[in-house]
Amino acid sequence: MNNEIGDNDENGHEYTLDEALAEVGFGKFQVLVLVYAGLGSMAEAMEVMILSFIGPSVKSEWGLSSGQESLITTVVFAGMLIGAYSWGIISDNYGRRIGLLSVAAVTSIFALLSAFAPNYISLVVCRTVAGIGLGGGPLYSAWFLEFVPVQNRGIWMVVFSTFWTIGAILEAALAWTVMPRLGWRWLLALSSVPCFAALIFYFLTIESPRYLYMNGMINEAYNVLKKMAEINGRELPSGLLVSDKVIENEEMTSSEETQLLSTGRNKNAISKPGFSSLLMLFSPSLVKTTLLLWMIYFGNSFSYYGVVLLTSEFSSGEIKCSSAILNSHILKDSSLYIDAFVTSLAELPGLILSAFLVDKVGRKISMLITYLCGFMFLLPLMFHHYKIWTTALLFGARMFIIGNFTVAGVYCPEIYPTSVRTTGVGVASAVGRIAGMICPLVAVDLMSGCHQMAAIILFEAVIILSGISVLFLPFETKGRELTDTVAVNK
Asked: Tell me, what's the pLDDT at 62?
């Protein structure tokens, strides 16, 4: 395999992948990549949000216990935990396209089979395997990120995040329309349509040039860049695309920032196949970042799904020990769908806010601001309020939590090198799935047991710990080029 390729003579200018991406710019090609990656993210959101709606109907139809109803949700997050870890390793070692195909196939097939489940056991099995497929959701963001030039990268990653919100809103609207008339099976079947669309349009995808570049496949990377330039109506830099830019007399330090930001392939770079990509997350240059991101992803997932579940709890009128003020506003059957739809709309201003902040003040400051605001909106929910105030507070909390979720989703793939990017993001997301499994078991039980104040205090404590983790993150990624390998001290 050649280490350089281009259309100039051997004395021509040498350029790197990042220089090529900057020259190609963001154009029609990246829009097509964005649409496909966004479709995958929308499908994931719909399959996750559906958990808020089908449980009570399945419980009523099959006479399930509360534990059996909760298990339908828990197994999906358990599957996502497995999938987030597995798909990251596969895509880091065998290519992004292999990962995309596997995720789309597993998710679409078992999401649809769930609608035809003849009994409880088969439904649990189908939802578990569908969850494994859904665990590959972070692969879409990492794949899209690797086509985007550094300029305004944060804003475009926020734009990508809007597809999750579109999926969440669409699922709430679909449940509102379908559930009262056709039931949960039709909701499951219709919700799987975006998953099948991702599978059908897979043939239009292309391998990440950064993945090819990092693995020494310079010819293939050049061909992808050339295609990108043609579609965007641009030209690649004249000269040679090289795999390295060796900088003479450059001082090397052992700091975490220098190791993470090293773009050249030095003698200490590690890029091994197999499960070593997971071990690299605990290398001296990455272990601190990895643990801090785990806490942030855990906190974001716990608080996000907590707000979603709190919406269900407040809307259902099932908290029998609430004050007379709350009990005097017990809702009709459709209230859950209406409130879920309204609070899902909160994600739109949350995304707009994160788009404004992420490239203005940076990723870390943006996360601190949204954590603080989310904390303030949740705090009054320790006490009972009229329904309109409760909905307004949940709306505000969800707006800022999704804003933080979005910024963290930009920061995490930016800070990890290409060689471990999807593994790092996948495992961080897997930790978030653990939070999704714990949240209904802990927080909802507290709410149902008349411990509303304790539940809110728990959410606030998790947010505080997540905010502290942001303070200790090693550096800001705003405006920095992506890195490709992990430098390790000898």
From this structure: 85
